[in-house]
TrEMBL record:
Basic residues: compositionally biased ranges: 150-162
Location within or outside the cell: Secreted
Swiss-Prot/TrEMBL GO biological process terms: selenium compound metabolic process
Pfam families for the chain: SelP_N
Gene Ontology molecular function: selenium binding
Selenoprotein P N-terminal domain ranges (all copies): 3-162
Region described as Disordered: spans on this chain: 139-162
InterPro entries according to UniProt: Selenoprotein-P_N, SeP
GO cellular component: extracellular region
Superkingdom of origin: Eukaryota
Protein name per the record: SEPP1 protein
Keywords carried by this UniProt record: Glycoprotein, Secreted, Selenocysteine, Signal
Length: 162
């Protein structure tokens, strides 16, 4: 399982970086169990050097218990270290877009105002991401057929600009 996960996580990292989302830290927390500890080196070798693999010590408090999560969860923090999303199964499957979208939102939203951790070109990068999302939505938006002229069918999207 972790080879599929590792390659999908690496693909997502590269995709986001190519879209301009840079300086994102990715950390995989290896499970504390004996089986996972024995396979640690395989997990570490299955990801690039841009993804940190953290090995829990069997005598420490379990990271997932401390974070109120489970081993397959994604915890997404903003640049100020605040938890923005906690995605559990099935939303943490990388074959879906939930993790990608959550990372983009955490990266682009500016909840606390000016920040010394903000990348110089973040506004242009995030504007481009928003534009692409709008174009994708326009492709799937139903076209009026003329049969229901009394009804206004629109998709509603709520974006929060801070």
């Amino acid at each position: 399982y972790f080879f599929t996960f590792s390659s999908r996580l690496e693909d997502l990292r590269v995709k986001l970086e190519n879209e301009g989302l840079v300086n994102i830290s990715y950390v995989v927390v290896n499970h504390q169990g004996a089986y996972s500890q024995k396979k640690f080196h395989l997990l570490k070798e299955s990801v690039s050097e841009y993804i940190t693999v953290y090995q829990q010590d069997e005598h420490q408090a379990d990271v997932w218990t401390t974070l109120n999560g489970n081993k397959d969860d994604f915890l997404i923090y903003d640049r100020c270290g605040r938890l923005v999303y906690h995605l559990g199964l099935p939303y943490s499957f990388l074959s879906f877009n939930y993790v990608e979208e959550a990372i983009k939102i955490a990266y682009c939203e500016n909840k606390c105002g000016n920040c010394s951790y903000t990348e110089p070109d973040i506004d242009a990068t995030c504007e481009n991401i928003t534009k692409k999302a709008d174009e994708k939505l326009a492709e799937v938006e139903p076209k009026p057929s003329g049969q229901h002229s009394n009804h206004n069918h629109q998709l509603h999207r709520h974006r929060h600009h801070h």
